[in-house]
Amino acid sequence: MRLIASHATAAIVSAGAWVGVGWIWALVLGYSIGLTGIESRYVTQIPILFVSGVLLFLIAVALNYLLITFEASQRAQSKALELQVLAREAELKALRAQIDPHFLFNSLNSISALVMTDREAARQMCVLLADFLRGSLKLGSQERISLAEEMRLAECYLDIERVRLGPRLKIQRDIDPQCEQCLVPPLIMQPLVENAITHGVAPTIEGGIVTLQAARNGAGVKIVIENPFEEDSKAQNGAGVGLKNVKMRLANLYDGNARMDVNQNAGRFRVELQLPCDRV
Q1: Bridge partner residues of 222 (DSSP)
Q2: Which residues have C-beta within 8 Å of that of residue 264, sequence separation ≥ 6?
Q3: 26, 69, 233, 236: least CB-packed within 10 angstroms?
């Protein structure tokens, strides 16, 4: 309210000054070049000139505020882009740190043990581990990757675990070729297959089957990771940090157009991702 009053006062003062300058200029013209009656004609125009002066002042103020708002909007947009870049960098760092240290320790311990008993298996595990780490760093730096690339990285992880766990780990794969070129966030499956091993196969003596499925679902793609679980470990399976991270990533990246469903039934733990299928 005070701002409006100050602008109104300034408009009146500036319009009055403008009218006053015009009156002086009319007097100068009347006396210098002999324009008789110019003063009286000017007096009749004073109300129009005064209102025009007020309106011009207010228009100038409005334009000034528009320019200020535009500059503020540009700064806000630039700041938002900067924050988006920082958020992306933070996400990539989190993704790279997401590889469970226990997985690395277990892999290195397995390599150490295999060196004495099966050097060929140790060499194979070293190659697989190097390929997995190289692939996770390379693909993790991209905005989107094809589902085929994401599946290859997940299977590379599972191949490492298969060397470590031996026949206790079995893998079933059912990937529809029509969805292999669908674009997905990089490393979106990594925490899911990690959970499948850590909380499903590794704790059980007999091990189990990890199933990877992907199929078109209308305009989208459905990805399923399924593994065995024990009834008494149900709470542990359902509250994994990896699952929460995946759910948050989907919410941030797809703005409600993607979802993750988790189900536990008949000794199987099932995670289902529903994503839009943007193609390469």
Answers
A1: 215, 274
A2: 229, 234, 237, 238, 270
A3: 69
Residue 42 clears pLDDT 90, i.e. is over it: no
Q: How many CB atoms lie within 10 A of CB 212?
A: 21
Q: Could you tell me which of 133, 132, 131, 111 has the C-alpha nearest to residue 122?
A: 111
Collect all residues with Cβ–Cβ distance below 8 Å to 223 and sequence separation of at least 6: 147, 184, 189, 213, 214, 272, 273, 275
DSSP three-state, residue 137? helix
Q: Which CATH superfamily is domain 99-279 in?
A: Histidine kinase-like ATPase, C-terminal domain (3.30.565.10)
Provide the total of helices (H) and of strands (E) in the chain, helices listed first.
8, 8
- Between residues 52 and 118, the one the model is more confident about: 118
pLDDT over 60 (residue 239): no
Strand partners, 265: 268
| Domain residue ranges in the chain | 2-93, 99-279
pTM flag (> 0.70): no
Pick the closest to residue 243 from 194, 192, 193 (CA basis). Answer: 192
Residue from 272, 269, 274 nearest 237 by CA:
269
Rounded Cα distance between 111 and 125, Å, is: 7
| CA gap 254, 273 in Å, rounded | 12
Contact indicator for 219, 260 with CB cutoff of 8 Å: no
Residues 167-210: tens digit of each pLDDT: 999 999 999 999 999 999 888 898 899 889 988 898 888 889 99
